[in-house]
Amino acid sequence: MAVERTLSIIKPDATRRNLTGKILARFEEAGLRIVAQKRLRLTREQAERFYAVHSERSFYDDLCDYMISGPVVAQVIVGENAIALIREIMGATNPANAAPGTIRAEFGESIEANSVHGSDSPETAEFEIGFLFSGIEIIG
Ligand code: CMP
User: Fold this and answer.
1) Greatest C-alpha distance within the chain
2) pLDDT (0 to 100) of residue 1
3) Are 32 and 79 spatial neighbours (Cβ–Cβ below 8 Å)?
4) 3-state helix/strand/coil string of 59-80
5) Which among 96, 24, 110 has a CA at the least distance from the CA of 63?
6) What is the pLDDT of residues 14-41, one digit of tens each?
7) Is the CB of 124 under 6 A from ligand 1?
8) How many CB atoms lie within 10 A of CB 90?
9) Cβ of 114 less than 6 Å from ligand 1
10) Candidate of 61, 111, 115, 124 to mutate for ligand 1, largest count of ligand atoms within 8 Å of Cβ
């Protein structure tokens, strides 16, 4: 297993319900390390560029609207096998299908308002990290 870095976003449904600390605790308890973090409100253009990979999907417009509906908290996370590990801790995209005990099973409201995002590959992680953070903001 390799040490990887990945990007996580706590989504507007979770910041609205004051779940930021509870979600971050799941990552830290799994041995992952937060090496950069910011709270921000994405612009429509930023949301569109961040999720450009989904631009042809039917849910793209609604997803972008949702992601700008409130503040988000973004973090760069580092650890052994971090990309797969975070996806395991988050659970399936649709909270209805997420395994018991996962973040989305416990906190997710819908497939769109599913509380948290995590990069799905090393390539996506590097794009997403570079999109939201500059090198000097990442402190290992
Ligand atoms: P996320 O991991 O942030 O990546 C893309 C997001 O699109 C996903 O989580 C969901 O919140 C959202 N989404 C909305 N509808 C769908 C859908 N039908 N299939 C997959 N993702 C969806």
Assistant:
1) 39
2) 77
3) yes
4) CHHHHHHHHCCCCEEEEEEEEE
5) 110
6) 999 999 999 999 999 999 999 999 999 9
7) no
8) 25
9) yes
10) 111
From 103, 112, 115, give the residue whose CB has the most ligand 1 atoms within 8 Å, as the site to mutate.
Answer: 112
Residues 113-135 have pLDDT tens digits of 999 999 999 999 999 999 999 99
Both tokens of 45, joined, read 């253009």
Distance 66 CA to ligand 1 centre (A): 11
- Residue 99 DSSP symbol: P
Per-residue tokens: 117: 């995002």
The pLDDT assigned to 27 comes to 98
Query: 34-77 pLDDT, tens per residue?
Result: 999 999 999 999 999 999 999 999 999 999 999 999 999 999 99
Residue 135 tokens read as 């090198």
